[in-house]
Amino acid sequence: MTSHGIAPRHKFRSMNINPNNKLLVFNNKNSIPDEGGEIQRDVQKSGLGMEPEEEKEKHIQNALNALNNKSRESVEIPVPRYFPLKEEDLYPKQFGQSPFYYRVNEKLPGIMSDEIEYTLDADDFIWMDKQGFISGLSKEEGAIMEDNVEMIIDILEKITAQKNEDNDSTLCTLEELNKCYKFPREKIVKSKEDEIMLRNIFKHWVEKRQRRKNALIRRFQRPTPAENKDISLCFRPRMHRQGGRRQAKKNDYHSTMFRYFIFRTFFLIFKILI
Length: 274
Prior knowledge:
mainly alpha, Enhancer of polycomb-like protein, Enhancer_polycomb-like_N
């Protein structure tokens, strides 16, 4: 017992003494085990060297039964089971695989869709009336129709958006429009009059774009790059998480005041002693 009346904790694992076991006797000094050496004791293991819960698994039990009953004919040898899956069972019957591959253009992914997003407004109709455009009801061979105006302006807008991911300061040129794979120049431009009309459409688009100082097709605004330090710009992604410093500031204040108090106390003691 200790001074506090609490029995000391054993520093070794206690074992029950069985008087029926024979006493171990060492004949010489060399046979006595070293106290600092490792104590090797037999650890009870399962037959497969795994946990008892894992050994109760169904397939492992079948394997053990087949191993122990080799002479019997009714031994069930565990083998992996598989079920063949037909392609008709995986997909619906009305599903039809396309013979073509889906291709993506890396240079101009913004104009891959055939859907025309631009819609003619009142300014476009007034301008077309002055230019003498032919309506879609009376088609003529080699004439630029109203629908083609929407398509041309739509392609110009999408090429411009691809050239300027951050801002739309650089507009598309007429040469870039003619080289664009989405622009069917052979079907639209068939004469000198059509070439002049195409240039007029391009000129009208440039003037309208400069007058509005914005894109004619609405698009999502991308966040301002973190490298741009202009404080007037918003939608900048936050680089560092703003953590609360209220508790830290409070602790810093108390620590500073405590240091001042200790300094004044030591100064007064030093003054009294002198």
